[in-house]
Amino acid sequence: MKIVEFDDKGQRVETDAGSVSSSLGSSSLAPRPERPSRAPEASRRGRNSSGIELYMFQTGTLRTKLKYIKMNQGESDFEIPVPWFLIKHPMGNVVIDGGNAIEVAIDKRGHWGAVVDAYDPVMDVADNCVDQCKMVGVDPHSVRYVLQSHLHLDHTGAIGHFPNAQIVVQRREYEYAYDPHWFSSGAYIRADFDRPGLNWKFLGGEYTDFYDLFGDGVIRTIFTPGHAPGHQSFLINLPKTGPVLLTIDAAYTLDHWENKALPGLVVSSAEAADSVAKLRQVAKDTGAMVVTGHDPDNWKTFLKAPHDFYD
């Protein structure tokens, strides 16, 4: 397995798999596809596609309590969507997070354990990210990158399921996932990310902030720690729609975005608040459409895959 990361000075470093784990195999990037003469399924909204498309999917919902989403705000029942995203790009298809793993739909307690007592997943097997990709004509082997906002259990559904994909994550998050604090341990399902044959690329926090995946300004990562130590959000620049800011769990809901609540789970409240401020400045500077991580009302306002997309 080859691992690409960045050192403390932001310099690219490649290391052999043996320096991380002898149990991991090798993998390769999906080949860069040729630009199609016409974008597939471009007639969805009665117009031609720009060739770059953002699809908003979800792997079911989580039934939980309000206090677990908005800190200290009560015991009332609260059901949230579990979004994930697919970007069709001329230089390769990109999956962001992948939602819940398919194992959750098969045996949720067997895969998540006691976590289901606090976050009860409602998911069909067909909701898994691989099958949903196929619904919009994307072969799993064609996915070139899987971008991980962080490694919590409701965001790791893509890892290991796209055989040619390189997985991009913050090194700080990767290391923490193997040895989290006691209060965060339930959020990490090691079986999701400790797998053989994975090709990881580690980013270096502030040193690689606003990392440009393809070098064309379409997909940029934004380091937003707080909810998790190595959390990152994403700024997607689309030819027709313009900028779309995927906060992911840096802002679960609009209440977090508007500084009315903290997330139900944080490793640093101060970093969480600073990350929201950072994203609010990005949204102000770019005029981006803001997509929060798990807000049921905000989520309803967007065009949903597989029937529609943004381009």
How far apart the termini lie comes to 34 Å
Which parts are unreliable, with pLDDT below 50 for 5 consecutive residues or more?
A: 17-43
Give Rg in angstroms.
18 Å
Total helices: the number is: 8
How much of the sequence is in beta strands?
Answer: 25-35%
By DSSP, the count of extended strands is 13
Describe, in plain words, how this protein is organized in 3D:
- This protein has 311 residues and is an alpha/beta fold.
- It has helices at residues 102-106, 108-112, 129-135, 171-178, 190-193, 254-257, 269-286, 296-300; strands at 2-6, 12-16, 53-65, 77-88, 93-96, 120-122, 143-147, 166-170, 199-203, 219-223, 232-238, 242-248, 289-292.
- It is globular and about 45 Å long.
Q: Which descriptors apply to this entry?
A:
8 helices; alpha/beta; 18% helix; 311 residues; 13 strands; seven-stranded mixed β-sheet; four-stranded mixed β-sheet; single chain
Topology summary:
Layout: E1 2-6, E2 12-16, E3 53-65, E4 77-88, E5 93-96, H1 102-106, H2 108-112, E6 120-122, H3 129-135, E7 143-147, E8 166-170, H4 171-178, H5 190-193, E9 199-203, E10 219-223, E11 232-238, E12 242-248, H6 254-257, H7 269-286, E13 289-292, H8 296-300
Parallel strand pairs: 5-7, 7-8, 8-9, 12-13
Antiparallel strand pairs: 1-2, 3-4, 3-6, 4-5, 10-11, 11-12
Short description:
This protein has 311 residues and is an alpha/beta fold.
